[in-house]
Amino acid sequence: MNNVIDLLKSHRSIRKFSDKKISHELLVELIQAGQGAATSSHVQAYTVIHVKNQANREKIAELAGGQGYIASCSDFLVFCADMKRPTEASERTGSNVNRGMTEQLLVATVDTALMAQNVAVAAESEGLGICYIGGIRNNPQEISDLLRLPDHVYPVFGMCLGYPDQDPEVKPRLAVEAVLKEDYYTDDSEQVQTFDATMQAYYQARSNSNKNTDWSHNLKPLFDNKLRPHMRDFLIKRGFEMK
């Protein structure tokens, strides 16, 4: 295996950061690395908000469910799916733009995720730690108001960046056989059962916050209730009508 593959397989979410700050020059390099990601039809349907205002970071930490590391990390970024820029650019050429299409929502969301993952990998290659923050979708309208996001732009997730002040274990992943299938979709219940045993052993042996559970039981809160049911109405109000 080469160094890039080793790096990708060693990802951990970091939630405790040292006081050392990321230089502006390095942050710009990370964003440029993000821009190197694949993008559908070269649309580049993303915008990244670098939240420097400490009061805003503390407010976002609260809105995201009390995740204090949003306020304490070196830098906090909010990755936004942005269909405002490309549709307006097209409109200026005389195009009769059709906004609000479901495909536009998908393109912008996928573009944003690909860009962010490039940033994450670039950051980890420089010895930084990262943590994605999906909790900003708990209160997406308040986040949008705080960041002054216009219509046709929505916050997909945040990312904490900084120099790690912890060294957590790498969390196991499903067996390749569960996710890589040949020609057709096949049942993977046996692999899931095996993975549940692996995760239970991992959680019990974990040096920090060990617990007696497994992968399947950890999924229950995600599916017992409707997860973030406000998101559909929120997206429609942002101009993503899903037509």
UniProtKB/TrEMBL annotation:
Could you tell me which residue ranges the Nitroreductase domain spans?
Answer: 9-163
Entry keywords, A to Z: Flavoprotein, FMN, NADP, Oxidoreductase
Per its UniProt record, what SUPFAM superfamilies does this chain match? FMN-dependent nitroreductase-like
Q: Which family does it belong to?
A: Belongs to the flavin oxidoreductase frp family.
Task: Please identify the protein, giving its name as recorded.
Answer: Oxygen-insensitive NADPH nitroreductase
Q: Which gene encodes it?
A: nfsA
